[in-house]
């Protein structure tokens, strides 16, 4: 089984790479475009995939991936099981702060096919934070893009004084708290 | 006609006695109940007990027949302020005036001809499931000079919602679930009047695919002797170039055999069992069509006992399991107002 | 003019949308040029219909004329009805008779009138070479009911017949006999193919729909992918190859031209329930009886988009891709020794 390694490759100068994994192509594309619209002093590469593992024939041209975002569509059980299956192909070192879950479509309560708890549990199992976001709404999409970019900068080591692991632990604990307040 | 049958009012009064006693002893915060029930984000519980409801009285069928085989719209309602079972006659009179006034304005109601509408509030003790539970309230609008014919019904209930009764504050009566059948225009007028009179708020009770799956599984398990119908699941497929619906109807006996092979616990139904039931059906489907039903949205479930649509419409087909169905709907309504 | 005829014409006129009124009345050909000019098309529909009836009265219109107008209306709005396809077959050795419409009509009428006196039969031929037959049924003691007619569409020298509207079983038998006699065939059966779109049904059974348009129209790959490719170079599709494969497989199954319009496909499954072994549920050898219906305003387009949207695996099940080649949208699936069988006609 080919796993995706966090430190298998050397970083590229002044750039950062984010990988979006999810079954909804339209949302992925939209989010990717929104991320690129943000002004950046580094070069951002965005890789899109519907599931893992990534095709091995492209291994040699793919830069080091700094952050993996797993997009779970709360309205599709299939999307959830797809992510569950993909997670197996990620090297453990990624879970030291370089993975994040993005749960979309949880706002329409009458349409959700996955328990919100299930996603929280999954994220907890993989020691990674969850962001909730309605990608149809442009403002939320922009805010999410900004959050992801900030995380990406940290994960790629472009933010001095913060490590990916410490930042992710910080996010997790704050999310954990807020979920009990809701 | 505005006088409710004496028997009904009597039982209503009795229940109210219980209610007030109870309310005065318990002042719980909303936060506490949601934590107690593990009900964050309106979650469905991990398991549900199979109700041991007392069989309804002999003549119950006739008394709840008005709820059967009709398309009912479901609403969740916040607790009613200063509602009293003793004042049902007064409510009937007031609402009757309001409707008449609206009709005079000629804005809202377009009932054929010049119908004389009468309103009657009555207490429904049939829907009382336990000693401390409360009776439901039925609102009937009748066209006097056309039969008389019932043109609109609304029914407040709180079936097996005992634990929420513990938490309501003094002066409030809790009927989390409201069922409506009749003209939209009348629903609007009556809804407005109820919201103003009792300072409560109605919202459409939509049902998520998660809960629909529960209903599909639980209702398939109910034993029915006559009028068996196929268990039908309707899925709406998102993201196709043209709208696409998939109806998946399973012969009642075969669906029950499948459920019985999964449901091995006597007293309760578990989330895993419901999941397994749906996953099994989806897999059988996938084997034939190579389509992931798990990527689509379950929007409607119909079984021999009831059909329910995610947009908050239900048709109850069988009186035998009415209480179980109302109890489940009450539970969902409670989770929506908490 | 008979009151029934007048009322029927009036109601038919009421159904015609204003924008089509002038054209349809002209096509109808009952009125003279002057009469047509005199009709005020802009008045209230009710008045207009009365005016038309008035003119019909003057011209002595009969039920034949009324039925003709009804056919014109239904020909234009043929997609409002549900059409069922029937296929006629000849026994081996039956000689081919030279076809002509006059014989066809005569034999059809003679066959039907032989057993049923009270019946209105109207024929009308259209430019697309189709013959429309409208039959209003009566009984021995009752006049034909003009409001529930059966429409039959037939193209000469083809074995296919398109019939709209449910009719009583005994009438159906009579109709079939008449059709077989008129078109010189020996047997007729339903094809389990139904749609609102008559033209699509014709495309399917006459094989006018070409599945492999690609060979004639080799569009360069780059161009077709341009929508996906045209994005920022900083966005990299990791599964481009996979998507391309799906697209190719899909094209093999559905072609890349426009697809015939069907509204549903129905499958009666009587196959053994099998789950993943780890589920460990219902290990029954008895068939698990299901009825699966796919419905959409444009079913084949919807099915075609399933795999690219990640909702199904490619290739899509043969059960779904065989709809057009087999000219069927109603199937019964039973378990066979190897895989599923759907050869049986749905009874």
Automatic annotation (TrEMBL), chain A:
Main location: nucleus
Database matches in Pfam families: CENP-M
Keyword Transmembrane helix: no
UniProt xrefs under InterPro entries: Centromere_Cenp-M (IPR020987), P-loop_NTPase (IPR027417)
Gene3D superfamilies per record: P-loop containing nucleotide triphosphate hydrolases
Keywords: Centromere, Chromosome, Nucleus
Top-level taxon of the source organism: Eukaryota
Cellular component GO terms, alphabetical: chromosome, centromeric region; nucleus
Cellular compartments annotated: Chromosome, Centromere; Nucleus
Listed PANTHER family: CENTROMERE PROTEIN M
Protein name: Centromere protein M
Automatic annotation (TrEMBL), chain B:
Domain of life: Eukaryota
Signal peptide stretch: none
Annotated Pfam families: CENP-L
Subcellular location, record wording: Chromosome, Centromere; Nucleus
Keywords, in A-Z order: Centromere, Chromosome, Nucleus
Entry annotated with the keyword Nucleus: yes
Entry's family note: Belongs to the CENP-L/IML3 family.
Protein name per its UniProtKB record: Centromere protein L
Species annotation: Eublepharis macularius (Leopard gecko)
Biological classification of the source: Eukaryota, Metazoa, Chordata, Craniata, Vertebrata
TrEMBL record, chain C:
Record-linked InterPro entries: CENP-NAC/CAD_complex, Chl4/mis15/CENP-N
A GO-annotated cellular component: chromosome, centromeric region
Keyword tags: Centromere, Chromosome, Nucleus
Gene Ontology BP term (one): CENP-A containing chromatin assembly
Compartments (UniProt record): Chromosome, Centromere; Nucleus
Domain of life assignment: Eukaryota
Major location category of this protein: nucleus
Protein family membership: Belongs to the CENP-N/CHL4 family.
Protein name: Centromere protein N isoform X1
Source organism per UniProt: Eublepharis macularius (Leopard gecko)
Lineage, opening ranks: Eukaryota, Metazoa, Chordata, Craniata, Vertebrata
């Amino acid at each position: 089984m080919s796993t995706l390694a966090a430190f298998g490759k050397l970083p590229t100068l002044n750039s950062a790479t984010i990988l979006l994994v999810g079954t909804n192509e339209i949302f992925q594309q939209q989010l990717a475009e929104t991320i690129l619209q943000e002004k950046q002093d580094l070069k951002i590469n965005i890789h899109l995939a519907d599931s893992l593992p990534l095709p091995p024939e492209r291994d040699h041209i793919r830069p080091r991936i700094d952050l993996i975002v797993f997009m779970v569509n709360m309205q599709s059980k299939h999307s959830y099981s797809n992510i569950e299956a993909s997670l197996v192909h990620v090297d453990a070192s990624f879970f030291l702060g370089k993975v994040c879950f993005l749960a979309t479509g949880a706002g329409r309560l009458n349409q959700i096919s996955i328990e919100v708890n299930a996603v929280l549990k999954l994220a907890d199992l993989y020691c990674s934070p969850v962001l909730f976001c309605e990608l149809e709404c442009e403002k939320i999409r922009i805010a999410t893009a900004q959050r992801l970019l900030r995380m990406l900068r940290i994960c790629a080591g472009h933010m001095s004084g913060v490590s990916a692991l410490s930042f992710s632990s910080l996010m997790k604990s704050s999310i954990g708290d807020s979920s009990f307040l809701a | 006609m505005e006088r409710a049958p004496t028997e009904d009012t009597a039982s209503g009064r009795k229940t109210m006695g219980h209610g007030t006693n109870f309310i005065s002893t318990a002042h719980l915060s909303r936060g506490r109940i949601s934590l107690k029930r593990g009900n964050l984000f309106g979650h469905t519980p991990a398991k549900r007990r199979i109700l041991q409801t007392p069989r309804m009285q002999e003549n119950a069928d006739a008394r709840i027949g008005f709820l059967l085989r009709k398309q009912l719209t479901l609403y969740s309602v916040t607790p009613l302020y200063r509602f009293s079972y003793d004042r049902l006659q007064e409510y009937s009179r007031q609402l009757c005036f309001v409707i008449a006034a609206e009709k005079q304005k000629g804005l809202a109601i377009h009932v054929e001809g010049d119908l004389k509408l009468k309103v009657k509030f009555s207490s429904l003790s049939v829907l009382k499931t336990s000693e401390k539970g409360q009776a439901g309230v039925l609102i009937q609008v009748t066209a006097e000079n056309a039969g008389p014919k019932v043109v609109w019904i609304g029914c407040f209930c709180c079936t097996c919602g005992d634990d929420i009764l513990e938490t309501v504050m003094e002066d409030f009566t809790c009927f989390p679930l409201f069922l409506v059948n009749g003209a939209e225009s009348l629903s609007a007028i009556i809804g407005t009047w109820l919201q103003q009179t009792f300072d409560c708020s109605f919202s459409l009770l939509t049902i998520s695919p998660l809960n629909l799956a529960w209903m599909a599984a639980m209702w398939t398990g109910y034993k029915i002797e006559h009028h068996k119908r196929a268990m039908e699941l309707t899925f709406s497929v998102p993201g196709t170039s043209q709208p696409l619906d998939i109806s998946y109807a399973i012969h009642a006996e075969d669906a029950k055999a499948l459920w019985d092979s999964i449901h091995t616990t006597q007293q309760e139904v578990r989330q895993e069992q419901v999941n397994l039931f749906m996953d099994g059906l989806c897999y059988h489907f996938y084997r034939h069509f190579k389509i992931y039903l798990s990527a689509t949205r379950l929007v409607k479930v119909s079984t021999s006992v009831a059909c329910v649509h995610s947009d908050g419409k239900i048709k109850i087909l069988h009186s035998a399991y009415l209480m179980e169905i109302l109890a489940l709907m009450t539970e969902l309504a409670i989770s929506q107002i908490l | 003019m008979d009151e029934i005829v007048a009322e029927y014409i009036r109601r038919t006129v009421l159904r015609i949308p204003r924008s089509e009124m002038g054209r349809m009345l002209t096509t109808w050909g009952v009125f003279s040029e002057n009469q047509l000019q005199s009709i005020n098309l802009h008045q209230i529909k009710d008045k207009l219909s009365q005016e038309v009836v008035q003119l019909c009265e003057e011209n002595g219109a009969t039920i034949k004329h009324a039925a003709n107008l009804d056919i014109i209306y239904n020909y234009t709005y043929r997609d409002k009805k549900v059409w069922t396809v029937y296929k006629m077959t000849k026994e081996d050795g039956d000689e081919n008779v030279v076809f002509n419409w006059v014989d066809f009509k005569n034999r059809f009428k003679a066959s039907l009138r032989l057993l049923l006196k009270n019946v209105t039969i109207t024929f009308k031929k259209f430019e697309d070479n189709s013959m429309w037959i409208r039959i209003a049924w009566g009984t021995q003691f009752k006049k034909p009911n003009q409001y529930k007619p059966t429409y039959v569409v037939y193209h000469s020298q083809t074995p296919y017949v398109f019939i709209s509207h449910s009719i009583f079983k005994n009438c159906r038998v009579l109709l079939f006999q008449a059709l077989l006699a008129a078109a010189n065939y020996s047997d007729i059966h339903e094809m389990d193919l139904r749609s609102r779109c008559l033209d699509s049904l014709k495309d399917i059974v006459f094989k006018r729909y070409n599945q492999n348009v690609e060979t004639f129209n080799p569009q360069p790959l780059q161009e077709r992918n341009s929508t996906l490719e045209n994005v920022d170079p900083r966005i990299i599709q990791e599964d481009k190859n996979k998507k391309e494969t799906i697209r190719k497989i899909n094209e093999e199954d559905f072609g890349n031209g426009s697809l015939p319009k069907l509204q549903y496909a129905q499958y009666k499954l009587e196959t053994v329930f099998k789950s993943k072994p780890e589920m460990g549920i219902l290990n029954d050898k008895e068939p698990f009886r299901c009825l699966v219906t796919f419905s959409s305003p444009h079913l084949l387009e919807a099915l075609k988009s399933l795999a690219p949207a990640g909702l199904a695996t490619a290739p899509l099940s043969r059960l779904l891709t065989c709809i057009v080649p087999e000219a069927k949208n109603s199937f019964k699936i039973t378990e066979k020794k190897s895989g599923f069988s759907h050869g049986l006609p749905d009874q």
